[in-house]
Design goal:
By secondary structure, this protein is of the alpha/beta class. The chain is built from 19 helices and 15 strands. The chain is globular. Pathway: Amino-acid biosynthesis; L-threonine biosynthesis; L-threonine from L-aspartate: step 5/5.
Length: 467
C-alpha cells in the first residue's frame, strides 16, 4: 500500500513513512493510493470476531508490508486488550426500535480518540525502534485529542509531545486530563486563541522549513492517516452486529474536524453497506453549509457546550474533496490555496454530487442539544455528553427507512462535560473510578501567545533537535 498527498506534490510513502510524517511536505494530507475492498462474504465473516480480530482484518490492507500480521495483531492486543474498560471495546447500546449508541468512550481518557491513539502511540514506538531518530510530536486539540495522545505516548522513549489547546475553551475535565500528566516528555501549551488558530499553528510549523528542518516532526491530529485508519474499524464492528452485509446501516457522527465521519466514508468505499452518513454539527456549521449548499466558508468560532465541535476549518474535509474530484492533486491544491487565502470556496459540481450520494447533514442549536440529552435520559436511561446529543438530534432529524438501524457515535463520556449534562438532565454524571482523583492531581502547563514566533520559540527551547 502506498500513500499519496491530496495536493499531489509530495513524495509517495509507505504506511510507515506516512505515519511518521503526519502531514505531507506539500501541505496536503496523505491518503491510500487506492481503497481496499472487502466482498460481502468477507464482511459476513467478521460477525463473530473480537474487536482485536476485526481491527487486524480491517487494517491489514492499509499497513501493507510495513508490519507483518503477527506484529499488527500484537500491537492491536496491546492497544485494546486491558486498556479499555469494556471487553467489547466499542459496545453498542440500544435506545429504541431504530436508534443505537456506539460507545467509543471506554478508553483511558474517556473519548473516542483513545481508539486510534492507543494504537498510534505503539506504531510510533515500533517504527522508531529501527531508526536513529527522536520524534517530536506537535498537535492541537479542541479537548479530547490532547489527553488521548498524551496518555498514548507519555513516558515512551524517543518521543516528546507538544500539545496546544485553546485556553479556557476546553472543559475542566478535558484540561486536567492533559495537564496532570507530569511525564518529562509531555509539554502542554495553552494558547490565548481558539482551536482553529492552534490547528493553523501546527500546520504552519510543519510547512516552515526553518522550523521543521530542525526537528523530526510528526502529528497525532487526524491529519495523520493512521488515526483515521484505526477509526474505520468500529464502523465494521458495529455494522456486522446489526446485520451487515445483508442489512445496510446508517451512522450519525458529531463532528468538527471531519476525521471521524471520513473514516465512515472509507468504510463505505471498502464495501460496508452504509445507508447514510449523517454529519452532525453545532452552530459552528461550516460542514453543514458545505454539504447542503456547497458553501465552504469559515466564519468566527462561537464557543458552545460542545467545545470539540467549535471549529470552522475542518482539516479532513480536504481528503473528501480530493476523492470526490477525481483525485486531481493539482486542482485540489489550487482550491485549498484559495480557501487558505480567502477562507471561502465553493464546492465543484462533482464534489457536491458525489457527497450527496452518501452524506446528509444537520445543524443542531443549543436548545435541541439540551433537549436530546434530556430526552435520552428520560426515555432510555442513558446519560450522553453534548457532542453525542448533537449526533442523536441529527439522527432523529433525518428521514430514513425505519428498517435501517441508525447508529450514533457516542464520542465522549458524559462525565467529561458534567456541568452541561447536569443542566439538561438534572443528573450529574460521575467520573469513572479509574480517574476519580483527577481534581486532586497537580497541573502543569505553559501559557503562550498564539503567534508562530512565540510558539515555535517555546517549543525549540524544549525539543530535541535532529542529530
Amino acid at each position: 500500500m502506498r500513500y499519496v498527498s491530496t495536493r499531489g506534490n509530495a513524495p509517495v510513502l509507505d504506511f510507515e513513512g506516512a505515519t511518521l510524517a503526519g502531514l505531507a511536505a506539500d501541505g496536503g494530507l496523505y491518503v491510500p493510493e487506492q481503497w481496499p475492498h472487502f466482498t460481502a462474504e468477507e464482511i459476513a465473516e467478521m460477525a463473530g470476531l473480537s474487536y482485536v480480530e476485526t481491527a487486524v482484518r480491517v487494517m491489514a490492507p492499509f499497513v501493507g508490508d510495513s508490519l507483518d500480521r503477527d506484529t499488527l495483531t500484537r500491537l492491536c492486543e496491546q492497544a485494546y486488550a486491558g486498556r479499555f474498560a469494556h471487553d467489547a471495546v466499542t459496545p453498542l447500546v440500544q435506545l429504541d426500535h431504530q436508534h443505537w449508541l456506539l460507545e467509543l468512550f471506554h478508553g483511558p481518557t474517556l473519548a473516542f480518540k483513545d481508539v486510534a491513539l492507543q494504537l498510534l502511540g505503539l506504531l510510533f514506538e515500533t517504527f522508531l525502534q529501527h531508526r536513529d531518530e527522536h520524534l517530536t510530536i506537535i498537535g492541537a486539540t479542541s479537548g479530547d485529542t490532547g489527553s488521548a495522545a498524551i496518555d498514548a505516548v507519555a513516558g515512551r522513549e524517543g518521543i516528546d509531545i507538544f500539545m496546544l489547546h485553546p485556553r479556557g475553551r476546553v472543559s475542566d475535565v478535558q484540561r486536567r486530563q492533559m495537564t496532570t500528566v507530569l511525564s518529562p516528555n509531555v509539554h502542554n501549551i495553552a494558547i490565548d486563541g481558539n482551536f482553529d488558530q492552534a490547528q493553523a499553528l501546527v500546520k504552519a510549523m510543519f510547512n516552515d522549513p526553518g522550523f521543521s528542518g530542525r526537528f523530526t516532526l510528526s502529528a497525532v491530529n487526524s491529519i495523520n492517516w493512521a488515526r483515521l485508519m484505526a477509526q474505520i474499524v468500529y464502523y465494521f464492528y458495529a455494522a456486522v452486529r446489526l446485520g451487515a452485509p445483508e442489512c445496510p446501516v446508517a451512522f450519525s457522527v458529531p463532528t468538527g474536524n471531519f476525521g471521524d465521519v471520513f473514516a465512515g466514508y472509507v468504510a463505505a468505499k471498502m464495501g460496508l453497506p452504509v445507508a447514510k452518513l449523517i454529519v452532525a454539527t453545532n452552530i459552528n456549521d461550516i460542514l453543514h453549509r458545505a454539504l447542503t449548499s456547497g458553501d465552504y466558508s469559515a466564519g468566527e468560532v462561537t464557543p458552545t457546550a460542545a467545545p470539540s465541535m467549535d471549529i470552522q476549518v475542518s482539516s479532513n474535509f480536504e481528503r473528501l474533496l480530493f476523492d470526490l474530484n477525481g483525485r486531481d492533486g493539482a486542482a485540489l491544491a489550487e482550491q485549498m490555496q484559495t480557501f487558505e487565502t480567502t477562507r471561502a470556496i465553493r464546492l465543484t459540481n462533482a464534489q457536491r454530487e458525489g457527497a450527496a450520494k452518501l452524506f446528509t447533514s444537520a445543524r443542531i442549536d443549543p436548545d435541541d442539544m439540551a433537549l436530546a440529552m434530556r430526552r435520552t435520559w428520560e426515555r432510555s436511561g442513558e446519560l450522553v455528553d453534548p457532542h453525542t446529543a448533537i449526533g442523536l438530534a441529527a439522527a432523529r432529524s433525518v428521514d430514513l427507512d425505519p428498517a435501517i438501524p441508525v447508529v450514533t457515535l457516542a464520542t465522549a463520556h458524559p462525565a467529561k462535560f458534567r456541568d452541561a449534562v447536569e443542566r439538561s438532565t438534572g443528573t450529574r454524571p460521575i467520573l469513572p473510578s479509574r480517574i476519580g482523583d483527577l481534581f486532586e492531581r497537580e497541573e502543569k502547563y505553559d501559557v503562550v501567545h498564539a503567534t508562530f514566533d512565540d510558539v515555535t520559540a517555546h517549543i525549540a527551547e524544549l525539543a530535541t533537535p535532529k542529530a
